[in-house]
Write a structure and sequence with these properties.
Elements: H1 18-29, E1 33-36, H2 40-45, H3 52-66, E2 72-75, H4 78-81, H5 84-101, E3 104-111, H6 115-126, E4 136-139, H7 149-158, E5 161-167, H8 174-177, E6 180-182, E7 193-195, H9 196-213, E8 220-224, E9 246-249, H10 258-265, E10 272-276, H11 278-281, H12 287-303
Parallel strand pairs: 1-2, 1-10, 2-3, 3-4, 4-5, 5-8, 8-9, 9-10
Antiparallel strand pairs: 6-7
Helix pairs in contact: 3-5, 3-12, 6-7
The structure holds ligand LLZGTKA7.
Length: 313
């Protein structure tokens, strides 16, 4: 390990906070996050086999086409893991290419476990020394938001971020995420009945609060799906105290449109980062066609004037 690096993370160079880096990248390129989801049908369309070599070529070609044209990419970890150790190695290479090309990365891994195991997940996705390190990782809060503390702490230490699932884009989620809960998942300093999803947001806000009070940015963002039609501002969630980014999957293949986002996220501040995977990737494999599709979607998203700085700032 390099002299001066932290024993846990190997960190030896200052990196600006993830929210600040995301805000700058969105300002430069637009808010679109391109999901790198190498589904079998897309692999075939791009001329690749459904194997480890295929997902590696797919991911690296996508990164090469998108570098300098979008702010952030989001590899779907499951679609690499399905190919075993070769698929994980492929993901490492895709992440390395993205890093070298200056693209921000969100590993969509949806990890969550008891604290001691969470420490290992945190090191896998957020430590400088890990070959799988991304700029941010998605986390599941259903073992309790508090169990995610090792990831929040390491993200803050290494200038990385986490996106905690609050209101996901799938219809089945409502039974859990819209249930009323007595602070079980939320900020103990602010007790009361609220939706589970709001409790997740409030706990993330609490995790960011101390750093925000000190003039910095916290590591915690949330996932709020783009689907759900016109259920009002952020689908009923109050994000005003979050002081963090919002990842918004569901554009395109799941049916959400930029107009839906305009109705749900157009007030307040951001950054709000809508993400599309299957639909935008189907514009490939021609790099120019893929870039044109991103440019058009980013143009439509920019026109919505979505929040661009930390929500709650
Ligand atoms: O609430 C959520 C959280 C994550 N996802 C992930 O995003 C992409 C969506 O892919 P599309 O092809 O654009 O539908 C996928 O990797 C999901 O696992 C989500 O959809 N919803």
């Amino acid at each position: 390990m390099t002299a001066g690096a932290s024993a846990a993370t190997g960190r030896n160079a200052a990196r600006a906070a993830f929210t600040d880096r995301l805000t700058a990248a969105v300002g430069a390129h637009g808010p679109l996050c391109v999901g790198i989801d190498p589904h079998p049908g897309l692999l075939a369309r791009w001329g690749h086999e459904d194997d480890a070599a295929g997902v590696e070529r797919f991911g690296r070609d996508a990164v090469a086409a998108l570098a300098g044209h979008v702010a952030v990419v989001k590899p779907q970890v499951a679609l690499f893991e399905v190919h075993g150790s070769g698929g994980v190695r492929a993901l490492e290479r895709v992440l390395a290419d993205a890093r070298d090309a200056g693209l921000l990365t969100i590993a969509d891994a949806k990890r969550g476990d008891i604290g001691s195991t969470m420490t290992a997940y945190a090191r896998a996705w957020l430590a400088d020394t890990s070959p799988l390190a991304a700029d941010a990782v998605t986390l599941s809060p259903y073992l309790g938001v508090g169990s995610l503390t090792p990831a929040l702490d390491l993200a803050a230490e290494t200038g990385r971020g986490v996106f905690v699932l609050a209101r996901t884009s799938n219809a089945e989620a409502a039974a859990v995420q819209s249930a009323q809960s007595w602070t079980a998942l939320s900020d103990p300093s602010s007790p009361g009945m609220r939706e589970v999803a709001q409790g997740v947001v409030d706990a993330c806000a609490a995790a960011n609060a101390a750093r925000v009070r000190a003039g910095g940015s916290g590591p915690a963002g949330v996932v709020v799906g783009a689907t759900g039609g016109t259920t009002g501002r952020a689908h009923g969630l109050d994000l005003t105290r979050l002081h963090g980014p919002v990842l918004v999957p569901g554009l395109g293949a799941q049916g959400a449109t930029p107009d839906d986002l305009a109705r749900t996220f157009a007030d307040g501040t951001g950054p709000v980062v809508p993400s599309s995977s299957r639909e935008i990737l189907s514009a490939g494999p021609d790099p120019e066609a893929l870039r044109d599709a991103c440019l058009a979607l980013n143009g439509a998203l920019r026109a919505l004037a979505l929040p661009a700085g930390p929500i709650g700032a």
